[in-house]
Amino acid sequence: MIAKQQCQDLLSFIDSSPSPWHVCASIETRLQKFQFRRLYETEAWNLVKGGRYYVVRDDSSLVLFVLGKQPLLDTGFKILGAHTDSPGLRLKPNPLLHTDKLLRLALEVYGGPILATFTDRDLSLAGRVAFRNDNGGIDCRLLDFEKVLLRLPNLAIHMNRAVNEEGLKLNKQSELAAIIATYIQQQLPDTYLQDLLATTLGIRSERILSWELNVYDTQKGVFWGVDQAFYANSQLDNLASCHAGLTALLDEATLNSDNSLVCAFFDHEEIGSESMKGAAGSFLPDVLIRIVNAVAKENDAQQRTFANSFMISADMAHAYQPNYPAAYESNHKVIVNQGPVIKTNANHRYATDCQSEAQFITYCEQAGVPYQKYAHRGDLPCGSTIGPIASAKLGIRTVDVGNPMWAMHSVRESAGVLDHHYMIMALRCFFSS
Questions:
Q1: Residue 349 gets which letter from DSSP?
Q2: What is the mean pLDDT of residues 205-220?
Q3: 174: helix, coil or strand?
Q4: Strands 230-233 vs 413-416: parallel, antiparallel or unpaired
Q5: Tell me, what's the pLDDT at 186?
Q6: Domain 88-217, what architecture?
Q7: Which of 22, 231, 195 is CA-nearest to residue 96?
């Protein structure tokens, strides 16, 4: 029963978070219920043992931490890393196309989505809009149209006879313009979108300066299967990991464990993490170093603290799909609802080494949950995570783990209810032990 409740909370979390900026806002709302205090990078920090804090960078990356009562030099940090972004489609700066009596919005590919899954879906837009405020400065506000706004209609099979044999192939430049309206002469194409944004936000059109908006599927998350053992939604990669880490930490027993706990949720993982707020940037090191400087005065405090720290990089894993047996390494098939997955790669696309792997196995055993191990086929390129990036920057031992899921990078992904519960239990043991 508790597994179903946790998974329903996950689906609600995803449904209320249609963009990385909304993800951050959803996390912030949950933190405030547990008396976390927001810190700002432009201000001095006064930290106390047992204090609960969080920092936001550029609205879509967030680091939260609890300063433990045990000496930081002796215990180090317990860090959970995940990412707030998902692959998909983004609105171009000048997107409006008016041809053949239709208005369309030109879209740009973000990361590596399965493009065909975006066709014939009930799509909308969400993100943030920058505008001029009453004082002449710049403000940003979240935007979610909260209704079906766009569609990418498929081409009928009568015009694409080979689609079932060759698959649906979409040209990223010419075939990703979503229909939004019928064009009438009275509409002013240059201001149509800006007026639409202004009306939705309740501000004057001429004040809008810029925007970052992504396409999202308006269909809500659901349970499926005869016994409802599976769930489906968008953005499971990687909001399921964000939610598991957050749920594991936001438990009073965990929060009062005396350990120094950190959750780092990064934007831009899907495009390589090379940004001011990505895992390859300075955000997490900046926060951790400021914490160390606030509580320890020794010259080597940072190095000693990091050497005693441990990080779990939580992203999703590829579940075995029996319709495609040739896509998997035969001895490393991971099965939905059979427990968290430890991901390894000899070329260090995942940060796991034998010691960090053994440590995570220990957490699973202590929590009483099963675990699995995954390696990618040797003749297929392997994806990567924030794990190797953050571990290299910090010098902190790291393990890459994730829950098994189907159709990674589809607009509609699936996973197992029990696995989400298992991951929460394992992470709670990690934070509390």
A1: S
A2: 96
A3: coil
A4: antiparallel
A5: 62
A6: Roll (2.30)
A7: 195
Residue type, 387: G
Q: Are 217 and 232 in contact (CB under 8 A)?
A: no
Contacts of 159 (CB under 8 A, 6+ apart): none
DSSP string, 27-75: HHHHHHTTT-EEE-TTS-----TT-EEEEEETTTEEEEEE--SS-HHHH
- For residue 17, count CB atoms less than 10 angstroms from its CB and return exposed for 0-12, middle for 13-18, buried for 19 or more: buried
Q: Enter the tokens of residue 282.
A: 């300075």
Residues contacting 367, CB < 8 A, separation 6+: 422, 425, 426, 428, 429
Q: Residue 165 corresponds to which tokens in the numbers above?
A: 């044999």
**How open is the CA angle 333-339-344, to the nearest 5 degrees?**
55
Q: Is the omega angle on the peptide bond into residue 238 within 30 degrees of 0, that is, cis?
A: yes
Q: How far apart are CA 189 and CA 152, in angstroms?
A: 20
Quote the pLDDT of residue 384. Answer: 92
User: Could you tell me the residue ranges of all domains in the chain?
Assistant: 2-86+234-432, 88-217
Beta bridge partners of 62: 56, 265
**CATH numeric code, 2-86+234-432:** 3.40.630.10
Residue pair 97/104 in contact (Cβ under 8 Å)? The answer is: yes
What's the pLDDT tens digit per position in 21-40?
Answer: 999 999 999 999 999 999 99
pTM beyond cutoff 0.90: yes
